[in-house]
Design goal:
The structure is a homodimer. Chain A is α/β, with parallel strands linked by helices and about 375 residues long. In chain A, about 35% of the residues lie in helices and about 15% in strands. Chain A has an 8-stranded mixed sheet with strand order 2-5-7-6-8-9-10-11, sandwiched between helices. In chain A, strands 3-4 form a two-stranded antiparallel ribbon. In chain A, helix 6 packs across helix 7. The longest helix of chain A is centred in the first third of the chain and has 32 residues. At the A-B interface, strand 1, strand 2, strand 4, helix 3 and helix 4 of A face strand 1, strand 2, strand 4, helix 3 and helix 4 of B. Strand 1 of chain A pairs antiparallel with strand 1 of chain B, so a sheet runs across the interface.
C-alpha cells in the first residue's frame, strides 16, 4: 500500500529536521565545552583616551578640599584584553548605550558569557569604552556644585537621565507593556533585576558639543592602528560620528539599534569608504510607551542610510534579524539568550567585509 | 703592604653589595620575564552585589522618558578574574578610595602592571568593586533632578567631591607642594596627567547611612565563601566597617592609608578575630596643604587601633614602609614604581597570617 502524499512529506521533513536539530545540539554542546576552557590572554589593562584640563571656580571650598585648581574632564576610560596572536585580527571597540556602562558587554544578567570575552576567545582584541561622562570616565560636576553654592540657578542643572524599570521594559522591548513578555522573547527576563542594576545615571547633557566620545573613539582607532568601532542605541551612530571627525583608523563600523542621523552627500561619501553593518532585533513596532524610542522609525531611517552608502559605492548591510529567521531579539540583544549566535554573525561579517574583502571602491 | 682598615670595609661592602644589587637585578629581570608570559584565566566576569528599588517622583518627565516608576540604587558593581586552581587561595576584594574607581588597581598611570593582574598571576582570585554611588555602580540622581524641577531647594544638592590636580598632589604626597616632588618619591610623576584622568566625581554624599558599600562588601565575602577585604584611603576602614555588619565571610582585612575610626571594646573584640594588616607609605608629615588629610594623625590613630586589636588577642600588624627600609612611597602606593614589591609584601602577609596560620585566639 502506497503511503499518502502528506506522509512522504512528513518523513522527508523529519529526516531533514531531526539531524539539523541534533547538529545544532551538538554545536551548542561543543561551544559550551569550548567556552569552559581556560582563557589565555596575551595582555590586558586599561587606559584613557582624551581629556582636557578645566579650571574650577576659586570659591567656595568643598568638603575641606582646597578651592580652585584644575580638574580633568571629557576623558574616556578604556579596558582591553588581547588574545595570543591578537594582531591577526582587527581590534573591536565596543561602546554602550544610554543609562548603561561597559557592563553591557560583560557577563549577561543571567550569568552567561558576554560579547567581550566571546570575541577575545574568537581571537579578537576587545576594547570596552565607558562613554565620556559615564562610569569610570567620570563627568564634569562643576555646574552641580555651582548651583549648590548659589552662583548659578537650578534651571542650569544638567538633565540627568535615569531610565526607570518601567521605561526600560518597553524601550528595550522585553514585552508590549511593563510586566508582559513576548512569547518568543530572547531576553532572560527572569534576571531583569540584574539588568536594572546596570542602569546608571546618564550625564551626557553635561558634555560640550560635539560629544567628546566621538573624537575619543576616532583617536582610539588611530592609537590601535586600525579598529572596528561598535556602538549600541545611544552610541549606535557614534562609529559614524567618529568617522566624520577622523576616519583614518576606522576599518569597520557596527551600529546596533539606533536612530541613523540624516547625512549629506559629503558625509555619505566619507562613510561609504568604511564597511558598515547595521543590526536590528525583533518586535520593533510591538511595544507601547516606548518613550523617545520609535524603533520602527529608526529602522526605516537606517534602511535609508544603508541604501545611501550603497548608492555611493559603499559596502553596507542592514542585518534585520527577523528577516534571517532569528526571532524574538530585544534591544539588549548582546544579553539575549542567543547572544553568542549573534556574535558569530558579527564575527563572520567582520571576516568577510573588513578582513578579507578588498577595500570598497567608494565614489569620490 | 697591609691595606688600611677602611679599604677592607670598602672591599667587604662591595663584595656584599655588588652581588646583592646583581641579585636584585636578576630578580627584577626574572619577574619582568614572568609577567610577560600569557595570563591564563579559569573564569572572569562581572556582577552586582546589593541594590534596592526606589520609587521616582511621578513628575515631571525627563528627556522624553516616562515620569515615575522605579529605579535601582545602592548596588555595587564587581568584576573578577579567577586563575586556574584559584580555590587554593582566599579571594582578594579590592575597593578604591575617594574620587577614584577600580581603575586604581589596574594598569598604572605610566603603563605598568597593576595589583589586579599581579595578584591573579600569583594565583589569587581578584574582585574589583566600584563603590556604591561611583563609576559602574551608578548613583541616586533623584535629588539633583528634584532641584532641577524646583521641588527641592538647591541647598539640598549633594556635595559632589572632585579633587583638583593641586589638591591631589599634596593629599597623595607626590611632593611637599604642588609641582614639587620628593627626591626619593616612588610615584611615576611623569605620568601624573594619567592619574588625573582617573579622578572622578565622588557622590558618597548621596548615600544613606550606614554606607551601603559596607554591607555589600560583607555580602560579597559571604557570597565568595570567604574573602580578604582590602580598602584604600576613603575605603581603607571599609573592611572593618563591613566586618562589624557581618564578619562571617571576612578571612582577612588589609587597610591602606586611612584614618582609623575609634572603636569600642565590643567592636575591637569582633575585629580582633580577623587577621588585620594596616599599611602606610612615606612622607606622612612632609606635605603642606593636605586639606582634610592629616596622614601623621591617621597613622597615629591606626597605631592605636592595631595595639587595641593585639591587646584583645588579635593578629594585627602595622606595616609602616619606611620602618622596613622602603622609602618614598606616596598615598597611591599601588601605582608607585615599587608597586609589585609592595604587592609581594601583602601576598606574603596573606600566606602567613590568613592562609597558613592557625586562627588567632581572640578574647571573648
Amino acid at each position: 500500500m502506497k503511503a499518502p502524499y502528506w506522509k512522504s512529506i512528513l518523513i522527508i521533513a523529519v529526516v531533514i529536521a531531526v539531524p539539523m536539530a541534533a547538529q545544532n545540539k551538538t554545536d551548542n554542546a561543543k561551544r559550551r565545552d569550548e567556552l569552559k576552557k581556560p582563557l589565555v590572554i596575551a595582555s590586558q589593562g586599561s587606559f584613557f583616551v582624551g581629556g582636557e584640563s578645566k579650571a574650577l571656580p576659586s570659591a567656595p571650598a568643598r568638603g575641606g578640599f582646597a578651592a580652585g585648581g584644575d580638574v580633568t574632564v571629557n576623558q574616556m576610560y578604556v579596558q582591553y584584553q588581547t588574545p595570543p596572536d591578537g594582531d591577526r585580527h582587527v581590534p573591536v571597540v565596543m561602546v554602550h548605550g544610554c543609562c548603561l556602562s561597559s557592563k553591557t558587554w560583560e557577563t549577561t544578567p543571567d550569568g552567561r558569557m558576554g560579547w567581550d570575552e566571546y570575541f577575545v576567545r574568537k581571537g579578537r582584541s576587545v576594547y570596552l569604552a565607558d562613554q565620556s561622562s559615564r562610569a569610570r570616565s567620570g563627568f564634569d560636576p562643576t555646574t552641580i556644585n555651582a548651583v549648590r553654592s548659589g552662583t548659578v540657578p537650578p534651571s542650569q542643572l544638567p538633565n540627568v537621565l535615569m531610565a526607570s524599570h518601567q521605561t526600560a521594559w518597553t524601550i528595550f522591548r522585553f514585552g508590549p507593556t511593563f510586566g508582559q513578555t513576548f512569547p518568543d522573547g530572547q531576553f532572560p527576563i527572569e534576571a531583569v533585576d540584574e539588568l536594572y542594576k546596570q542602569m546608571i545615571p546618564d550625564l551626557n547633557s553635561t558634555l560640550p558639543s560635539p560629544n567628546p566620545t566621538w573624537k575619543n573613539m576616532a583617536a582610539l582607532a588611530v592609537k590601535l592602528k586600525g579598529a572596528i568601532l561598535m556602538g549600541h542605541s545611544e552610541s549606535g551612530f557614534f562609529p559614524e560620528q567618529a568617522a566624520l571627525i577622523d576616519p583614518t583608523g576606522i576599518k569597520g563600523m557596527i551600529s546596533i539599534e539606533m536612530p541613523c542621523a540624516t547625512m549629506n552627500p559629503t558625509q555619505i561619501s566619507t562613510l561609504a569608504k568604511i564597511p558598515t553593518l547595521v543590526m536590528f532585533g525583533d518586535h520593533l513596532g510591538d511595544v507601547q510607551g516606548g518613550g523617545p524610542a520609535n524603533w520602527s522609525a529608526s529602522y526605516q531611517g537606517c534602511q535609508t542610510f544603508v541604501q545611501q552608502l550603497k548608492s555611493a559605492g559603499g559596502d553596507a548591510e542592514m542585518m534585520y534579524l527577523p528577516e534571517l529567521g532569528i526571532k524574538g531579539n530585544s534591544h539588549m540583544l548582546m544579553q539575549d539568550r542567543n547572544n553568542l549566535d549573534l556574535a558569530d554573525l558579527l564575527i563572520n561579517w567582520i571576516d568577510k567585509h573588513v578582513e578579507s574583502k578588498p577595500k570598497p571602491t567608494a565614489k569620490p
